[in-house]
Give the backbone structure.
Amino acid sequence: MERARGSAKVVPAGILIPFILVTLLFPLWGFANDITNPMVKAFSRILRMSNFQGSLVQFAFYGGYFAMAFPAALFIKRYSYKAGILVGLGLYATGALLFIPGSMMMVFWPFLVAYFILTCGLSFLETSANPYILSMGSEETATRRLNLAQSFNPMGSLLGMFVAQQFILARLNPASAADRAAMPADQLAALTAQDLGVIRTPYLGIALVIVVVFVTIAITRMPAYGEEDRSLDVRPTLRRLSRNSRYLEGVIAQFFYVGAQIMCWTFIIHYGTMELGLTEVQAQGYNMVAMLIFVTSRFICTFLLKYVSPGGLLLALALAGGGLTLGAIVIPGMVGLYCLVGVSACMSLMFPTIYGIALKGVGEDAKLGAAGLIMAILGGSVMPPLQGAIIDLQTVSLGGVSFPAVRASFLLVVLCFAVIAHYGWRTATGRSASAPRRRTA
């Protein structure tokens, strides 16, 4: 039965070029996501803020996903996937260019505005590209097709991590927040301007790349799959989705998955610097190793989906991820860090698989349904500040045993994996079933 499932072509030959162009968007938002994670630590040091305050970068970044997902879905429904992609690219470039005034003003809030606008663009891109990829061929191969496209996302993530390590963290002045606080005002202002200029430069570079991609897609004819009905029947669609338990549980699982991913990749630097005394550049190196493992694992898991049900594989990986995270909490030293790095192998499959399971069989409702799954990226906005607040405690007592707060904070990640494992189990055992969908022409 599983082998029969793999007989249909994943990407029909006639749409290879459009598929490649849309797939190119996946590494572009991966770059934005993972050049940003280390900025939590960088901004905290440059502007002398707490871990909680620095994590507001993630609050603004992933808050943009949440705020724009539903408007993006309505826009795409009314117009087209291609129009949604172009709007997304435009907002992406605008947000990146806003790093110019942010670095000149030398205060935190303009950067938060820039991140918010940039990710409003990413919200348009993900709300457009994910269901567009699902529609590019047979429904029986939709999850595999999305996993294939998503396999290129971590390549952009890895590039973003590399740029953050070599072109930002390695070029920042090493003075600590305490050292900066003791500097004369004019010396501190000059140092802050220099460091914020270092952060600004890569964002200007990605803005230029986005402009090139915008022009390329604008002049290319893209297939109009699932765009025959442009009516905005929002209430009936939401009513159908609200009766679809598989979809609703998928939104919840996606919220906790994104929270787990962003916490692991944001605070691995804190784990390395606070627990092991590594420099920020060295700790970011382990983050890059984690991403290489993530990339490799995603291709392997995409292959395994030919033979294993998506829900079953999701369950197994969530349990493994939870176990490795517990290892990072209870085992001190390098072994704990290795466990945290290994978690990325377990996360590789999760986002596209949850996405594909939740939208399976919803037909035209996928356009608005995609908005709920992108809004679930709010998990990346809500969870990191909670973890940052725990880390600021320095020490946490668990069952009468004191743990460094940076290790104990990863209990939030264990909670996230428990929710994902529950969804995988319900999907694999058929307990999470979809409601009958509307018939489409």
Observations:
- Residues 1-6, 436-441 have pLDDT under 50 and may be disordered.
